[in-house]
Design goal:
mainly beta, about 10% helix, 4-stranded antiparallel sheet, two-stranded antiparallel sheet, about 130 residues, about 30% strand, 6 strands
């Protein structure tokens, strides 16, 4: 009963994931939305603290993978490639089952309404080769 919500608790935040290959090709591989979360932030906080784990000022909580209902909105490479069985095909013909050294991923989120758009900026990271 403590997780029951009377009103929808998820925010309408558009999300996109862009893959830039080590060859330089850039392509959006996923468009999703925070509204597809199974649990709201309120429910995750309640569940977390009810188990005896206190929250303190400055603690960070994260949603984890956010996957939408269609293949173009899946939230992980594992889902997008059906556990590596079906590679993601890029416009150049390149394929990916998983990220490769030198590939970069950019996450972007934004909310929009009637005549406005508020963005959260880009978050980009590049896969570096292992140090042997």
């Amino acid at each position: 009963p403590y997780l029951k919500e009377e009103l929808p608790g998820n925010y309408d935040v558009n999300l996109s994931v862009t893959l830039k290959t080590h060859e330089g090709e850039s392509h959006v591989i996923s468009n999703s939305n925070y509204k597809y979360m199974y649990w709201s932030a309120h429910q995750m906080l309640a569940h977390h603290t009810l188990g005896g784990c206190n929250m303190r000022p400055g603690d960070v909580m994260a949603s984890g993978t956010i996957s939408g209902p269609t293949p173009g909105s899946y939230g992980s490479m594992l889902e997008m490639s059906w556990q590596g069985k079906e590679p993601i095909k890029l416009p150049s013909g390149a394929e990916r089952k998983m990220l490769q050294d030198g590939d970069s991923i950019t996450l972007n989120g934004w909310c929009e309404g009637n005549g406005f758009r508020i963005g959260f900026g880009d978050c980009t990271s590049t896969i570096l080769p292992a140090k042997l």
